[in-house]
Amino acid sequence: MSEEISVLILEDHQVTLDGLRFGLSQESDIRVLAATANSDEGLRLAQELHPQIILLDLHLPGTLGPKSMVKEFCELPESKVLVFSGESRLAFVQAVLSLGACGYLLKSESVTRVAEAIREIYGGKQPILSESLATGDTKLTKSEQEVLRMLARGMKYQDMAEERLTSPATVRKQCELLLLKLGLKTREELIAWAVQNGYGNLDTTT
Amino acid sequence: MKDIHEALERLFGVKTRRTLGRQSKESRYLSQPQTPAPQNPASNSSGSWGIQSDLRLLAEIEKYEQVAELMDTKVQSDRGWLKCLLGVGAWQLMCQPAESELSICQQQTQLLCARLYELISHLALEHNQNTATIISMTAAFEVAEKRKVINNPGKIETTESVNYLRWRASTASWSLSLRARAGSIELFLVPASDIMALSQAELPIRLKKRLELKKVEEHFVWTSDSLPVSAEELRVLMRIYFRDLVSATQDQEQPVQSSSAQMPSSDGGRQARSIELLLIERENLAQKVVIQQEEIQKRIARDLHDAVISDVMALKRSLSSDKELSSETLMPSLEGILRKLREICYDLSPRDLSDWGLATVVEDILDQTAQRSGIDCGLNCDIEIPMMPTAVLLHLYRIIQESINNAEKYAEPKRIVVTMEMENERFVVLVADDGKGFDSENPGEKSAKSGGYGMGSLKERADLIRCFYPTKLQINSSPGKGTRVRLEIDLPRFNS
After folding, report:
1. How far apart are CA B420 and CA B358, in angstroms?
2. Do A142 and B356 touch (CB under 8 A)?
3. Tens of pLDDT along B208-237?
4. Is residue B305 classed exposed, middle or buried when 0-12, 13-18 and 19+ CB atoms within 10 A define those classes?
C-alpha cells in the first residue's frame, strides 16, 4: 500500500503537537499536511487542503465552542474526524460521536495507537475508541444493567421503554452508550454480550 | 443628542431689549424664597445660594429666560436643560475672560456641567415615568466668599470671591448637588433639609466625586483622582449617583410605610402591609444571596485547602527530600492535583454547559451520580433543548443538579429520573426519585433536613428564571412516596 493518508492536526498544546508530528512522520503511510492551534484557521486549512483525516483536539482557541466546532469539521464531506482529547467523561464522548466523529482517542494514548486509529478510520472502520473508554474505568450503572437484562430477555425497544417508563429513543440512546462502553458495534453483539455475561439469567433480576 | 455648543451660541447671540422687575424674576428663577432682596450685592454674595444683583447681569438672565421660554414650548422635556444653560450663560458673564487658558477652563467646565445636567435630567425623566421621585431640578450660579488664610508672617485672613456654577436634582428628602468652578466639578449628596445652607452642607463626607480639568500636553482632559474619565464613565457615574439619590430617598421613606401599616383593616393599611411584606421578602432574598456567596467562598476555600494545598505540600516535601524522584512517581500525584482543580473550577462555573448544552451536562451529572452511589439514574430527553438565555440555562442546570444532589443525599432512592420535554410552548423539567420523601405540605420541623435548605434555593432559582419567563416550580413529596421536583417554563411561541 503505497498510498499516503493525508492528515491535518488541530492541537493547541505544543508539546503534544510536536510529539504527534514527529511520531506520525515516522509512519511511511501517513503524511501530515499542516497543523494549527486555532479552530478557525483549522477549518480554513481543512477546506483548502481536503485532508482525509482530521485529528482534532476538543478545546481550542477560536470563535467556535467545542460542540459547534466538532459539528463543522464533521460536516466536511471529504474528511473524517478523529477526536484526540483528555475529556474522558462518557456523556461528552457520546455527544462527540453523535455529531459524526469517526473516532475518539484519549490523550493518554501513544502515537503508535493514534497512527493505527488513523489507518483504521481511513479503512472505513468506526467508531474507533480508546480502550479505557470502552471497558476500563467505567463500570455499568444500575440502569444499564437493567437494560442489559431486558435485552438478554429479548425485549424490543418499545417494550423496554414501557417497562422503564421512558421513551424508545431514550432506550436506544442507552443502548448506544452501552455499545460504546463495551466496545461493541451492533445491537446483536450487545444482546449476545448480555446473554454471555449472565444478564439473561432471571435470577439476576433483583 | 443636542449640540450644546450650538445651543449656547444661539442663546448668547440674542440681543436683550427690555428689563423687567428683578426681584420676582430672581426668586422664581432660583427657587430660593429665603434670599433677601438683593439690594446690597456685597452682603448677598457671601451667602450660599445668593446672586449678585448686578443690573447688567439681571438683564442678561432676563434675556436668556425669554429665549428659554420661547424654545420651551417646542421642547418640553428639555426645560431643565435650558434652565441649566441659563445658569451657564449668566455664569459666563460673571467670569471675566482673562487669560485664554482660564477661559478655556471655564468653557470646558460649563460644557461638562450642562452635559451632566442633561444626563441627570434624562435619568430623572425616565425614573419619574413610574414614580414622581424627583420633585425639582434647578440650576443657578453663585458668588461665594471663601475665607483664606494666606501663609504670611502676620497670618492675615483674606477673603476671595469664587464663582460657582451649580445645579441640583432633588427628591423630597435628598438632593444631588453639583458645584463647579473653572476647572473643577464636585458632586455632593446632601439631605434636603440642609440645602438652604449649601456651603455648610457640602461637607467632605458628602462629596461623591471631584472631577478636575487637567492639561495634558496641549489638551484639557477631565480627570478623577488624576485618572482621565471618558464620557461613558461619566454616564455610568451619573447613573450610580442618581441611584444613590433614589435609594437614599427610599430608605428615608421606609419607616413611613411601616408606620402606616399599623392602621388595621383599611384598604390602605392592607396595601401598606403587603408592600411591607414584599420589602421584607426582598430584604430576605438579598440576605440569602449574601449568605450564599459567603457559603460559596467558604466552600472554595475549604476545597482548595483540603484537596489542593495538602497535595501540593506533600509534593513539595517529597521534592525537597534527598531522594531523587522519577517522573513516574510524580505524575500520578500531579494528575490528581490537576483533576481536583478541574473539579473545583467546574463546580464554580460549568463551562461544559455552554460548550455542550444542557442535555449532555445533565446526563453527565447523572452518570457521575450513578457511578458514585450506584443509584439507577436515567435521563429522558427526546427534544432539542429550546433556545434560552445563558442565565436561565445556568439556573436550570443548578436546579437539576441541586435536586439530584438532594435526592442522593437525603432520599436514599433506588432510582432518579430526569425528564425534559416540551408541552406545546412549555418547557418542562421533572426530577423524580423513589426515595423516602418528606411532607411537602409541612416542610418544617423534622423534614427540615431533607427539605429546608436545598428546596429553598430551588425556589430562589425559579424566581430568578421568572425574571425571563413565566415559571412554575412544584415540589411534591410525601413520606415513603418519593419526591418530584417539576419546573415549568412558558416560552414565547417564536422561541420554539
Report:
1. 10
2. no
3. 888 888 877 777 788 887 777 777 788 888
4. exposed
Starting at the edge strand found earlier in the chain, the sheet holding B471-477 runs: B376-381, B415-423, B426-433, B483-490, B471-477
CATH 3.40.50.2300 domain residues, chain A: 5-129
Distance of residue A149 Cα from the nearest chain B Cα, in angstroms? 14
383593616: which residue's cell? B265
What the block records as the C-alpha cell of B250 is: 427610599
Partner B contacted by A123 (CB < 8 A): no
Q: Summarize pLDDT for B135-191 with one digit per residue, the tens.
A: 777 666 666 655 555 555 555 666 666 777 777 788 878 888 888 887 888 888 888
Q: Closest chain B residue to A95 measured between Cα atoms?
A: B360
Q: Give pLDDT tens digits for B439-469.
A: 877 655 444 444 444 677 788 888 888 878 8
- Does domain A142-196 fall under CATH 3.20.20.100? My reply is no
Q: Could you read off the pLDDT of A20-59 as tens digits, one per residue?
A: 999 999 999 999 999 999 999 999 999 999 999 999 999 8
Residue ranges, comma separated, of all CATH 1.10.10.10 domains in chain A are 142-196
Residue B392 near residue B471 (C-beta atoms within 8 A): no
Helix (H, G, I), strand (E, B) or coil at B29: helix
